Amino acid sequence: MNVTVLTLFPEMFSALLVGGIIKRAVESNRISIETIDIRDFAKGPHRTVDDRPYGGGSGMVMKPEPLAGAIRHAKQSHPGAFTLVLTPQGRLFDHGLARELARCAELILVCGRYEGIDDRICQDLADEELSIGDYVLTGGELAAMVVIDAVGRLLPGALGNEQSAQEDSFSTGLLEYPQYTRPRSFEGFDVPDMLLSGNHGAIRQWRRQASLVRTFLERPDLLLDQPLTPEDIVFLERLHRDIEITLDRHSTTS
Ligand code: 6GU
Q1: Taking CB atoms and a 6 Å cutoff, what residues make up the pocket around ligand 1?
Q2: In which residue ranges of the chain is pLDDT below 50?
Q3: pTM of the model
Q4: Which atom of ligand 1 sits closest to the CA of residue 132?
Q5: Distance between CA 244 and CA 238 in Å, rounded?
Q6: What is the pLDDT of residues 51-68, one digit of tens each?
Q7: Does domain 2-152 have CATH number 3.40.1280.10?
């Protein structure tokens, strides 16, 4: 996959090459990350990239001309690229979208700064606007790096162990089960006995149930449109019954 990032701060993206899986994916040519400085497409002695908003208000808006120049330049080099603008107004990025984007051969990521970018850029030159969450960042660069990280690790061969991408949080639609490594006892807390049993069927079942409970406690919303197996239903019904028995025991009978 090739990712072309359009930004006013190209040097920020060197952070992806400091270490870890994305650095490895770059070194093994599974992904190439190219940056284009939007300021290179700005005209005039000051190479101005922002201006005051029409209609007034605080803050500055990124001018359309340098952005359009940079996007057209990137599209010329990468004709089939899917073009995304990173903005807090965009579609919420999630693991499903990361998986879809991992199928693209080429992506162009446009990073906004200041109060935003001239809206005609999004309408005219972008395929989709993307947000990484309901909070406001000072620019799209960190969001673009989040997208590159989440998509990059899904590229074939990027993770040493292919299974990890299939088992991690969200690929099953549930939160991941708790993980432990040595020592067996740490500061008074022990690894659950089941994980030491060597019974792989029982361990698989324990992990699935731990995922269900964790998801129910932390992100019940995820369970609402999640296909559950008959075994999941049996487990949750048993839990439900046990909770009811406990509550009955403690309820004051009047
Ligand atoms: Cl993509 N950009 C900015 N500036 N803020 C954000 C964001 C993007 N996603 C969440 N907050």
Answers
A1: 86-88, 130-133, 135-137, 139-140, 143
A2: none
A3: 0.94
A4: 9
A5: 10
A6: 999 999 999 999 999 999
A7: yes
